[in-house]
Every structure is written in structure tokens, then in C-alpha cells.
Design a protein that fits this description.
By secondary structure, the protein is mainly alpha-helical. The chain is 45% helix and 11% strand. Among the domains are: 97 residues, Glutamyl-tRNA Synthetase, Domain 3 (Glutamyl-tRNA Synthetase, domain 3, Alpha-Beta Complex); 49 residues, Orthogonal Bundle (Helicase, Ruva Protein, domain 3), CATH 1.10.8; 85 residues, Orthogonal Bundle (Arc Repressor Mutant, subunit A), CATH 1.10.10.350. It is elongated, with a radius of gyration of 32 Å. The chain binds glutamic acid.
Length: 462
């Protein structure tokens, strides 16, 4: 049984890079009919907040990345970590170390001065035949993991290939602080073990933790999972993705009017490919995704491509669904959405022309507000010679069948009578009805409004 996990630290929002990690972990589990575990790594109490936990849960829910187990909270598992530490002390895999932080600093200073790599000198590390110093009174010890001193720790990373680190390079990791609280790397190990994780898929900022974690897992007699370290995501400009680049929080994409399926499709292609396929559903992605074809080099964000995908999914989306997404955006702007004009119908006409839900809301808004035509725009588009045609159109409205083809025929009739070209009448109609010179086909736009509203808006010009 394949088991993956997503293990965010709740210290801010769900970052777009974190969402990609979650997506890959989720899809890999789905591909193998396995299980996907959500674990909240909240042991950094100074930085973890309930709001940040909520932001992660909201982001996962919005994307539809449902977990099969969890969320587990590390802060609720302290007793378990302490139990494992006691066992490791009893088995000789861990030991008390009374070197104080000040002594450690001095030690490191001295090593640096000699041009050596700073590291703990092993004073309190028990060895066969070694007599340990007497614990100093009044010093609270930390607990260190007894890391092997020779050989290498190696793994075949599913993205980066084989990685080997000499044990001599690593010193004995502190697994519990002076106050007895377990440290981050240790909690991850116990969790991955207890949660029977088979594949650890995570950002490559954790690659340095892996050899330490593998050594502890081995000391515990635990199965070592397989690791896939994903390369980082760079911004559009090739720099490390940060707040400077605008939206980095998943929920900001929601705010900015992206559809979750567009964001997911986009994220799937960040560092992974399946031939030339660019547009695919999550069902298709899960069928394909098997941790092969992940590029070890950094992936670069491309906002234009995301926008293109979003426009694509907007076109495909059901009008009623889009209306339900646009309506709250209009309400936030204090726009009262009435039955007529129908929001669904407006959306049906405009969704082909926009790249996000906010643009759709912009387009829809003018149908519901009191519109004062922009005098300048009107002067620009309403030529004096078009006024009689406009008057004819207004007169004709009263009797015309209220549907786009009949309205279109009326417009043609009015311009025909006065020997005008189409834009001479179509443009002022657009400006008067929507305040904009660019709209979809003018007969369809007219038909969206109730007849009386068209008369009211056109009356402004005569
Ligand atoms: N909590 C870590 C983070 O948010 C992830 C740890 C892991 O995946 O092993 O970066």
C-alpha cells in the first residue's frame, strides 16, 4: 500500500510551492490507489498559528486535494515522541549531553579558527571503554542521537538520483532540547514511521535533513521510505519565488479569480511533463503521474501560461457554476444582483472573452449598477448623423421580439434607412448600455437587458 503525506508547517499561508508538493503527493497516492496523509507540523509554537492552519486547510479544500487520513497535529503527539526518545536512550541510540550552548559556541569558534568544520566534539557520547565525565550540577542536558561514525548514508532519490553522504560529515543531532521538547527532524522521523509513509515527496530544501532522518529510522529498526525531492519553483523572472512576485499564496489565486482546475493543471506542469500535453484533467493527471518525468532542475513560473489555462477552463465551465462564483464577488462590491438581467446569461456571453472571474465580475457589474454614460466616450462614438438611426431604434424597440436575432434585424433596418455602416449605431449602443466600447455582439448584449432598462439607458442620449 502506497502512503504519501503532505506535512506543511502552519507559519503563514499555503504557498504555491507547497501546493505543488501536495498535488504530487496526492496524485501519486491516487495513481496507486494508495493513501494520502495530511500532517500539520506545528511544533514551532512561536511561528505556528491557528489562522495559518486554517489557511492550509482552506487552500487544500479549494484545490480539492482531499486527504485520506489526518490532519494529524504534531503538538498532539508529544507523548509519543517522548516515548520513542526514552526507548532510544534505553537502547543506546541516544544519550544525554551536558555541553551548554555557551560551551558549544566556544567549541565552534575554536574549530573555525583552526579551519575545521564546526561540530559537536562528542564529549558526552558514550563509547565502549570510554569513561564519561560526571554530569555538572544545575545543567539541564539535551538528548543527542548517536549517529554512526563510519560508512555512508545513501538513497536513490526518485528525482535527484543517487545521493551519498559520509557519516563522518554529520555530528550527533539534538533530538530533544533542554526542556525535553523533541526537535523537528526527530518528530518527522517518528511520524513517517508511525504513519507508515512509503514515499516522502517534499521540497528539496529538505534534502539535507534526509541523511539524518534515514539514520534515525535505521536506528529505530523502521523501514526507510523512498524519497523524492522536488526542485524549487522560480518566479517569472528566474528568481526564487517570493512575495515580490505577487501571488504566492494559493488563496490569493482564488481571490484573483482563478479556477482551481486551472491552478492544478498549471501546477502539475511545474517540473513534470507528459509529452507535449498541456491541458488535462486531474483524473488524467492521476492516471499518468508516477514520479517519473519530474525534472531535477528548477521550474519557472509563467503567469501568462496560467492565465491562458484559466481562460481555457472558464470557457469550459458551466454558466451556473460561474454565476455562483461571480455573484459573491459582485456582492463584495455592493452590487445588487437582480433576477434580470440574468447573471448566467451575461456570463454565457462574456466568459469567452475574459481570463479570470474578476474580469467576469467587471463585465457583469455594469448590467446591475446605475450607469452614467461617460460623456467623452459617448461623444467619441455617437456621431450626429447616427442620432436619427438611434431614435428609430428606440422607437422600434417597443415592438420588436425580445431576442438577439430580431434585435439584430432591427439594428440593420435602422442603419439601412439612414445609409450608415454598422459601427455608427453599434458603438453608441455599446457605450450607452455598458459604458464600454468593447462588448460581445451588440444584439446579444441588448437582449440581455429587460426592454425597459434598454429604453432607460438609451434615453440618456436623446
Ligand atoms: N514541515 C516541512 C515544511 O513545511 C515539511 C517537512 C517534510 O515534508 O518532511 O517545509
Amino acid at each position: 500500500m502506497i502512503r504519501t503525506r503532505f506535512a506543511p508547517s502552519p507559519t503563514g499561508f499555503l504557498h504555491i510551492g507547497g501546493a505543488r508538493t501536495a498535488l504530487f503527493s496526492w496524485a501519486f497516492a491516487r495513481h496507486h490507489q494508495g493513501q494520502f496523509v495530511l500532517r500539520i507540523e506545528d511544533t514551532d509554537v512561536a511561528r505556528s498559528t491557528p489562522a495559518a492552519v486554517q489557511a492550509i486547510l482552506d487552500g487544500m479544500e479549494w484545490l480539492g486535494l482531499a486527504h485520506d487520513e489526518g490532519p494529524f497535529y504534531q503538538m498532539q503527539r508529544m507523548d509519543r515522541y517522548k516515548e520513542v526518545i526514552r526507548q532510544m536512550l534505553a537502547d543506546g541510540h541516544a544519550y544525554y549531553c551536558y555541553t551548554t550552548p555557551e560551551e558549544l559556541d566556544a567549541m565552534r569558534e575554536e574549530q573555525r579558527a583552526k579551519g575545521l568544520k564546526p561540530r559537536y566534539d562528542g564529549t558526552w557520547r558514550p563509547e565502549p571503554g570510554k569513561t564519561l565525565p560526571t554530569p555538572p550540577a544545575g545543567v539541564l542536558p539535551v538528548i543527542r542521537f548517536k549517529n554512526p561514525t563510519d560508512g555512508v548514508v545513501a538513497w536513490d532519490d526518485l528525482v535527484k538520483g543517487r545521493i551519498e553522504i559520509a557519516n563522518a560529515e554529520m555530528d550527533d543531532l539534538i533530538i530533544a532540547r533542554q526542556d525535553g521538547t523533541p526537535t523537528y527532524n526527530f518528530c518527522v522521523v517518528v511520524d513517517d514511521w508511525d504513519m507508515k509513509i512509503t514515499h516522502v515527496i517534499r521540497g528539496d530544501d529538505h534534502v539535507n535533513n534526509t541523511p539524518r532522518q534515514i539514520n534515525i529510522l535505521k536506528a529505530l529498526g523502521a523501514d526507510v521510505p523512498l524519497y523524492a525531492h522536488l526542485s524549487m519553483i522560480l518566479g517569472d523572472d528566474g528568481q526564487k519565488l517570493s512575495k515580490r512576485h505577487g501571488a504566492v499564496s494559493v488563496m490569493q489565486y482564488h481571490e484573483d479569480g482563478y479556477l482551481p482546475e486551472a491552478v492544478l493543471n498549471y501546477l502539475a506542469r511545474l517540473g513534470w511533463s507528459h509529452g507535449d500535453d498541456e491541458v488535462f484533467s486531474m483524473e488524467q493527471f492521476c492516471a499518468w503521474f508516477d514520479l517519473d518525468h519530474i525534472t531535477p532542475s528548477a521550474a519557472q513560473f509563467n503567469t501568462e501560461k496560467l492565465n491562458w489555462l484559466n481562460a481555457h477552463y472558464l470557457k469550459l465551465a458551466d454558466n451556473a457554476r460561474l454565476a455562483a462564483l461571480v455573484k459573491p464577488r459582485l456582492e463584495t462590491r455592493r452590487v445588487v444582483v437582480t433576477e434580470t438581467p440574468s447573471l448566467e446569461a451575461i456570463i454565457g456571453l462574456y466568459k469567452e472573452r475574459v481570463t479570470n472571474l474578476n474580469e467576469l465580475a467587471d463585465a457583469a457589474e455594469v448590467f446591475y449598477i446605475e450607469l452614467t454614460p461617460n460623456a467623452e466616450l459617448l461623444a467619441q462614438h455617437l456621431a450626429p448623423e447616427a442620432k436619427p438611426a438611434l431614435a428609430d431604434f428606440i422607437a422600434g424597440i417597443k415592438d420588436v421580439a425580445w431576442e438577439a436575432p430580431a434585435i439584430g434585424a432591427l439594428i440593420k433596418q435602422c442603419i439601412g434607412t439612414h445609409g450608415l455602416k454598422m459601427p455608427k449605431l453599434a458603438m453608441p449602443l455599446r457605450v450607452l448600455l455598458t459604458g464600454q466600447a468593447q462588448t460581445p455582439s451588440v444584439d446579444a448584449v441588448v437582449a440581455l437587458f429587460p426592454r425597459e432598462q434598454v429604453l432607460k439607458r438609451l434615453a440618456a442620449a436623446v
